[in-house]
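PROTEIN DESIGN WORKSHEET
SECTION A - STRUCTURE
LENGTH: 90
TOKENS:
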């Protein structure tokens, strides 16, 4: 959900993603900003429903069928690929 709602986060990942993956998000201002923006987005999303009374959250987008897709494919499908397929059907 954060990528859908936060253009700056998307741009950070687009520009610095390979380096952040290579360094496991452990160094640099871009990694720190990415982690901070991601956590802030999640807190904004779950904050109004901390006790999960409705269980309808934008951060769950793409996670309806993705786990089943991964298991059906004997986990040959990466999680991100399964989520992308799931998003296409939502």
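SECTION B - SEQUENCE
RESIDUE ASSIGNMENT:
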């Amino acid at each position: 959900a954060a990528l859908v709602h936060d253009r700056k986060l998307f741009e950070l990942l687009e520009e610095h993603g390979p380096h952040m993956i290579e360094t496991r998000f452990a160094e640099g201002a871009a990694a720190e900003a990415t982690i901070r923006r991601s956590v802030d987005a999640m807190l904004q999303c779950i904050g109004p429903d901390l006790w999960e009374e409705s269980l309808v959250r934008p951060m769950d987008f793409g996670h309806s069928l993705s786990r089943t897709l991964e298991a059906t494919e004997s986990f040959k499908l990466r999680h991100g690929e399964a989520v992308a397929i799931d998003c296409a059907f939502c």
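SECTION C - NOTES
Residues 57 and 66 are 16 Å apart (CA to CA).
The chain has a mean pLDDT of 86.
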